[in-house]
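Dear colleague,

Following up on Tuesday's group meeting, I ran the structure prediction for the two-component complex that the binding team flagged. I've pasted the input sequences exactly as they went in, so you can double-check that nothing got truncated or mislabelled along the way. The structure tokens for the whole assembly follow below. Feel free to forward this to whoever is handling the docking comparison.

Inputs:
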Amino acid sequence: MAIPHDNRAVVVRDLERRFGTFMAVNRISFEVNRGEIFGFLGPNGAGKSTTIRILCGILAPSGGTGSVAGFDIVREAEQIKTHIGYMSQKFSLYEDLTVEENLNFYAGIYNIPEARKKERKEWVIEMSGLQDHRLSRTALLSGGWKQRLALGCAILHEPPIIFLDEPTSGVDPISRRRFWDLIYELSGKGVTVFVTTHYMDEAEYCDRIGLIYRGALIALGTPESLKTEWMEEEILELHCDRPQEAMEEVEGLEGIKEVALFGKGLHVVTALEAHRISDSIQQRLKDQGFQVFRIEKIRPSLEDVFVSLIEARDREEASQQEVHQ
Amino acid sequence: MRLSRVWAMARKEYLHIFRDPRSLGMGIAIPMIMLILFGYALTLDVDKVPMVIWDQNRSQTSREFISHFLGSRYFALQGYVDSYQKVEQAIDERRALVAMVIPPDFAGRLSAGRTTPVQMIADGSDSNTATISLGYAEIIISAYSQQIAVKELQRQGARVMADPLDVRPRVWYNADLESRNYIIPGLIAVIMMVIAALLTSLTVAREWEQGTMEQLISTPIKTQELILGKLLPYFAIGLFDVLLAVLMGEFLFQVPLRGQPLLIFAQAAIFLIGTLSLGMLISIAAKNQLFASQVAMVATFLPAFLLSGFAYPIRSMPIVLQWITYIIPAKYFVTLLKGIYLKGVGPKVLAVEGLFLVFFAVIMFSLANKKFKKKLV
């Protein structure tokens, strides 16, 4: 078996996928290390599912190269399938079969030896909390249960790499929390987890994140590095009286990119250095009779970073289009 | 190929079928209903043809002549009429398909030894029945006139040789000329063709529609394991249908089974593999249950019904259609079943047809395997 000697579970170079003239994935490159939780973050239709399907060997790329578990994504797609577990975005177990029948089916398909099968099935049933529902048809299970069972079926054969495509969409917060506990548990055992999401809080749970937007990978790094290194602008948090009126005053100042209401205060995005703009804001508000309680530079949240990166991207494309015209 | 995967697939498919009353109904109830409906409705026999008679002579001679018709099983008298208007009315209302008009001087002309016309009117809108019933009438009438001729000659003192030629008809394989005897075996073939293709036409398309295929193709299952696993439960249902059909032929329709029942099942097994694979191929290509089932219906029912020779003889088709029948697998199965049922022939005589079925099964199974891709789009 072609297990690579290096530490990389997934390697992707210039990966491309077109559907007609639509570029779903546009020359993306990244690597995922073994045992890592890698988050693929982006809005709907950004190319997350397309990428994950290519990596699972169920969709052919239009260009570029890549490997998963050391196998080539074009030539060795079938070998990849024995080394991964995949949980698709839509619930895709058999609804007219019971919990146990679904598990038996996948145990058979993954060729799990009879001796090991019972133990694995019990593990999944316990992990998903379905002890009392073994004989229930899956159609009757709630969202959280379905999702844990789907994960269970995908990891029944203990694959070293798992791909989860928006596993927690449409699931209640408690189930989501439980689900992430499971992911941590797997990661702790050395399993590589590749997960797509559009929840910012989930992105924070990942070891590393890739941000994909309109088919392109526009940022890559740990949540920490994204917040500190990828954001060009700085952010000030401003607490004052009559914040809605104050917004208009602040927006008029030079060097201010955006002002938004955030809780009781305002978030001010600036391209200049924070301490310099801070003084001019205070000055302006005082002149206009506002009372400033507090103003300080804050660390951007992931959401701030992503919004800023996506807007920068949009501006870039808009200006490119103008050049073309 | 791993048998454990084939088995897991087959078991899952079996659960789908037995959980869903509709698929079970389609697999078992529909073929039986079709067999009963077609078996009773589709008779090509012409007997008890409804008939009216206008006897303008009303003599003892004419009544005696009429009794030859009444005594035959081919005609059923619906009543006497007394005008052409009434004859027309009876045929228009479909109370009668045939009318006989006896002239007023019937007895007189006969006794005078003159040729006597008897008019037969038939409803040509059903040309098959018209032709056959006119044929029956001619036989009855010519037997009657021969009888009169012989009597007349004897009366004149001639020595009469009873019949110069004596025809001794003997119909082989279906002595009573019961059309049911050859329709039922053919019908089993036609119904199995339609049902088998229809059953599997849903199975792959359903997984694409419900999104379960995406999960399935991300596993290491091999194409042939998937297809074989899906075929197995339908194969069992198909053989069960054949068993039911053979039992119905035996006890309900009382069709004589002269050959080896085991031979029927052996040929049915080969035929089923081909036809189930054809349905699977359609399902793989269509990826949509409704479309797949419609294609399966059209692709099997019409050719099997019209071009298999099960009821309509291939030899009287235009030559181009005759060529086409060679690619209709139901044709071979119909020939096989009729041969086993009516003639009781063995594998040696039927080897060519059997080989064609094997050929069909191999091609269809390979095509289904080739067509299936473990990829999206």
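DSSP finds 15 helices and four strands in chain B.

Cheers,
M.
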